[in-house]
Amino acid sequence: MSAKKKILLLATGGTIASKKSENGLKPQITPEELLEYIPQVKEFCEVSAIQLLNLDSSNMEPEHWKKIVHAIREYYDAYDGFVIAHGTDTMAYTAAALSYMIQNSTKPIVITGAQKPIDLEITDAKSNLIDSFLYAADEKSQGVQIVFDGKVIAGTRAKKVRSKSYNAFSSIDFPSLAVIQDGNIMRYLPMLPYEDEVRFYEELDENIFLMKLIPGIRPRVLQSIFENYDCIIVESFGVGGIPKSIADEFYRLCRQYPDKLVVMATQVAHEGSDMTVYEVGHDMKKYCRFLESYDMTLESVIAKTMWMLGNFDLHSIDVEDIFYRSINYDVIFGKNRKC
Ligand SMILES: NC(=O)C[C@H](N)C(=O)O
User: Fold this and answer.
1) Which of 16, 61, 86, 89 to mutate to test the pocket of ligand 1 (most atoms within 8 A of CB)?
2) 192: CA distance to ligand 1 center in Å?
3) Does one domain contain both 127 and 253?
4) Could you tell me which residues are annotated as the binding site for substrate?
């Protein structure tokens, strides 16, 4: 029998590690205590644990993602896989960010958490953690994934869709990679071997503004957004377009600030953008250079632009080539699609 896989648990806080305080739930359970609740994982893997952060994930920031990446890089050779215990609220953002910051990892990096603290009698924490260790210790696992409520979701495809229920995450416009039931991993998609070596990126540019359109939006704040941010992501309606009420000012600013990255995304949860369909999208094409999200989740668009701006000089790269290149299954129906 082959030796047990060595898995490192990186604890970052979240409900999974929370206890009641006077002011509500607060992370305070140590990673060692977390492991005491799931002694059965010792049967199939050798676990070590470190407390990397201790946050409600509402407080998770790009600086913390860098810290997580740095720790995984530091311990990469010493372990066969990693489990990150994380709050659920921003887990989809972290999973997307790590997908860009750690690419081609043959060692699985699994992110999990819980809707109920591990010390409660009724909790999803234990099953989520056990499934995560099982997945991280499996020979066929690789890359960055979320394991939650029996589903394995590609790091770029997850979205928190329920604030209270156990099935809090969906895989958006892409199948779950696997399901885990009664200790068995059922894979829906084969893991294809990576062509390149593992690569770590520790830079991000977080100077990004997400502008959500609402009916009746006025152009008042646009000047200051363009002045102050490197990238403006427009969370538009439907497949995409700029409404008349802000169009003149928006196009004027696109011309005044040609170096700003403009990305058109959508507030619709499924099926993505297509700026070729409507006149409101067509006009945008006439006046601005922009990227669009296609079928990428908003979390992935945000993380990908932070990664792209942080690691490449946009004047010396083909921005479209990088943005539309599929990373960890993030974009399938993008510009570079081959049918
Ligand atoms: N279920 C959770 O983990 C929610 C918590 N507020 C967090 O994101 O840290």
Assistant:
1) 89
2) 32
3) no
4) 57, 88-89
ipTM: 0.98
Q: Write the CATH number for 179.
A: 3.40.50.1170
For strands 178-181 and 151-154, give the pairing.
Answer: antiparallel
156 and 15 in a common domain: yes
- Average pLDDT of 96-115? 98
Report the alpha-carbon distance of residue 171 to residue 156 in Å, rounded. 9
Answer yes or no: do 276 and 154 share one domain. Answer: no
Which residue lies with its CA nearest to atom 3 of ligand 1? 87
CA of 103 to the centre of ligand 1 (A): 26
- Position 336 confidence tier, pLDDT thresholds 50, 70, 90: low
pLDDT at 271: 93
Domains held by the chain: number: 2
Last residue of some domain: 179, 200, 221?
200
Contacts of 285 (CB under 8 A, 6+ apart): 275
- pLDDT tens sequence across 165-188: 999 999 999 999 999 999 999 999
> Are residues 126 and 215 both part of a single domain?
no
Query: Are residues 79 and 188 part of one domain?
Result: yes
- Active-site residue, selected from the candidate residues 12, 88, 94, 297: 88
Instruction: Spell out where the chain has E strands.
Output: 5-13, 18-21, 24-27, 45-55, 81-85, 102-103, 109-112, 144-148, 151-154, 158-160, 169-171, 178-181, 184-187, 199-200, 208-212, 231-236, 261-266, 291-292
Q: What is the pLDDT of residues 196-226, one digit of tens each?
A: 999 999 999 999 999 999 999 999 999 999 9
Where in the sequence is the domain holding 281, given as residue range(s)?
A: 208-323
**Catalytic member of 12, 15, 112, 297:** 15
Is residue 15 annotated as part of the catalytic site, yes or no?
yes
Residues near ligand 1 (Cβ within 6 A): 14-15, 56-58, 87-89, 113, 115
Establish whether 276 is a catalytic residue: no
Out of 15, 28, 54, 111, mutate this one to test ligand 1's pocket (max ligand atoms within 8 Å of CB): namely 15
Q: Does residue 92 belong to any structural domain of this protein?
A: yes
